[in-house]
From TrEMBL:
This is Type VI secretion protein. Residues 23-243 form the TraG P-loop domain. InterPro entries: P-loop_NTPase (IPR027417), P-loop_TraG (IPR043964). Pfam families: P-loop_TraG.
């Protein structure tokens, strides 16, 4: 019989095991060729740290705020206090962790409490600053996707779309890319969807263990924009796709906005153009050149389209029904 106390304890145990599992992957990214012995000692230390923070017994998950979870500094201090034999095993890892702590480190983005709010319908993570931080890039991506995956799997009733640009940056570390792939192929089970894009398909297809190929193969809908001959050859060799001479010619011409759409077994050439409002939002200079109007001023589309009150009422009703579907 599962009592209420046992249920709380089971939830806590499940949470801690999940957190430790993700942290082991995180530290594999930070330290190349980490040994199984290091992982074993690290796991037991993390487990003890979570218990020290109150994650044990009859505690309820709902009682914990982000400030209650362990930080990297607290883990660092815990490692420093290990008995000499265990500390010797984790000495190198401890020195690496030290460089990421607030007090001692030069890179502190991993130390502290989560302050991310997901209250808006669209949430953007700007990772551009990490492009110059090659040593922490993969670990940061892994951290973010781990956080997002926790949020996505928390509630199956909320439809969520995970959109990832510049996917090739993940290809620099197989652990980060594999974590993304596992989420990518399972997200539909949680009422969600995923969209990934990259300008460097060669980097994605040439990853170890063919994880990049698996991500593309797992995508029912694919858009291939212009590629050089090497890129086309990689797609053919790694994905087993066959292109006709016409399709190859179309792709290698690399015309702006033109792509080959693959939807299951169906294929079509498409051209993607920005409409007036999209141009105003995405390319202000082009907008002002084409329409000879300031891009900062939103046009009166109701007046331009000649919409009647009845048209507006119908549009508002359609919008209301769409919002009800996604609530």
């Amino acid at each position: 019989v599962l009592t209420e106390n046992n249920e709380h304890e089971s939830q806590i145990d499940t949470l801690v095991r999940s957190k430790i599992g993700k942290l082991k992957t995180f530290f594999r990214v930070l330290k190349d060729e980490i040994s199984q012995t290091e992982i074993s000692v690290l796991s037991s230390t993390l487990r003890q740290l979570y218990q020290d923070k109150g994650f044990k017994g009859n505690a309820k998950l709902s009682d914990f705020k982000s400030e209650d979870y362990p930080t990297l500094t607290e883990l660092y201090n815990k490692l420093k206090d290990l008995d000499p034999e265990k500390y010797e095993v984790l000495k190198d890892l401890t020195l690496i962790i030290e460089d990421y702590t607030m007090e001692h480190g030069t890179t502190t983005i991993f130390d502290g409490y989560t302050n991310i709010k997901l209250d808006n319908e669209i949430v953007t993570f700007n990772l551009k600053p990490l492009q110059t931080e090659k040593d922490v890039q993969s670990a940061a991506y892994l951290n973010i996707f781990s956080f997002l995956w926790d949020e996505i799997t928390k509630d199956r009733t909320t439809e969520t779309v995970l959109m990832t640009d510049e996917l090739h940056f993940l290809a620099t570390n197989e652990y980060s890319l594999d974590f993304y792939y596992q989420a990518y192929k399972r997200i539909r089970k949680y009422g969600g969807g995923a969209i990934a894009s990259t300008q460097q398909i060669k980097d994605i297809l040439r990853t170890s263990q063919e994880i990049g190929s698996a991500i593309i193969e797992n995508s029912h809908t694919k858009f291939f924009f212009g590629m050089d001959n090497v890129g086309v050859d990689d797609v053919v060799d790694k994905l087993g796709l066959k292109f006709s001479d016409q399709e190859i010619s179309h792709l290698t011409k690399k015309k702006k906005g033109e792509a080959l759409l693959l939807y299951g077994t169906q294929r079509a050439f498409i051209r993607i153009d920005l409409d007036r409002e999209e141009t105003r939002l995405w390319n202000k200079e082009l907008y002002e050149t084409i329409y000879e109007e300031p891009a900062d001023v939103e046009p009166n589309y109701v007046e331009q389209l000649g919409l009647t009150d009845i048209d507006l009422a119908e549009l508002e009703e359609e919008l209301r029904q769409a919002e009800m579907i996604y609530e």
